[in-house]
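Title: Prediction job returns without error message
Component: structure pipeline
Severity: low
Priority: P3
Assignee: unassigned

Description:
Job completed but the reporter wants confirmation the result is attached to the right record. Sequence as submitted:
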Amino acid sequence: MCCYIAFPLLRPGLDPNALQSYVPLIEGAKLRCIQREDYLNSLGARVRVLEMVHDIVMLSAVSSLHGHEAREMFNEKFPKLFFELEGGMTAVSFVLPALPLPYNIRRDRAQRSLASIYTKIIEARRSANFDDNICPDEGKDIISHLMRSTYKDGIPLPDKEIAHLMIAVVMGGQHLASAIASWTLLRLASEPAIVDELYREQSAVTGSAHEPLCLKDVQKPTLLWKVIKETLPVHPPLQSLLRNSLRSMVIGSSRWVIPIGRVLLASPAYTNRNSDIYPQPERWDPYCWELGNDDKRTGDHPLSQGKTVLPFGAGSHYCIGEDFSNVQLMTIIVTIIWLFCLENPPGREGVPGIDYTSLSSFPIEPAEIILRPRDVN
């Protein structure tokens, strides 16, 4: 399905009214993961960040966007299928997707299994009059919206396409959210003083760890907001962005001409670490956003034109899930800060290096932090 068609269909499920209902669901998903791993009963759990974050991001996305049926059937099999699907997203698979490699075979098998799961959910809703089959506390999920949607010519979406779109909704945000959340937690573990300040700040915002979060709590321009905003340019989740040239273009005032049909590549991973554009590009400093500059990393390079930070892309192919991703990230970080003190494992300073072999810029394993439970009674 063309992205120009899919974007308008998905956008209502990611608008502010929908986001309001997602915050408690994301918070609940996070708590389920913590309770399942029994982190709260450990004096100092040594946790692999990527493994923890992968489950949290997956469960929170499914819980909030996919409706109560998917949330209730979420078990060990569900994330495993997405993990196998994700394992087939490699550079080789991008060029030769049908190559019969083991991880491509597992990818295709997982895709068929997930499509079958979502198709059964859709069929069950249709047979039970799906208007009445929505939990009143979660609002209209994306599956319900797509089941009511039509193309411009009035043709309803086939169940198969809805199922595939639901898989794409999770996969589209899984890499970015997992990478950003992992780097944020690793940075916070290396800066315990900032963790303490975040805890004091959230105490003032929500009053108690037992109070449910709401959208306004995680959208305020607080230190939490600055922490996320600073992590995005220092650890851009996308190493490169590709765009096809639909017409000949002249670059700025230069003599460079991009012919029609060429593929353009922008690399946030390179641009954001270019000291010719940004001073101290690898320094992680959330407090710099207190200066009142809306975009600290707007470069002075003559070709930058003030827009060099592209964590969620730009133009007609920008990520429509940006607002959801920010709410998801802030809710996850707030919940962890409420429940745990974070610190680096003994012997490690700073954060791990970047794994450039992955499609997203994940930290090199083992990327671990120590979680020490707070007394929140």
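Comment from assignee: result matches the submitted record. Residues 1-5, 132-139, 299-307 have pLDDT under 50 and may be disordered.
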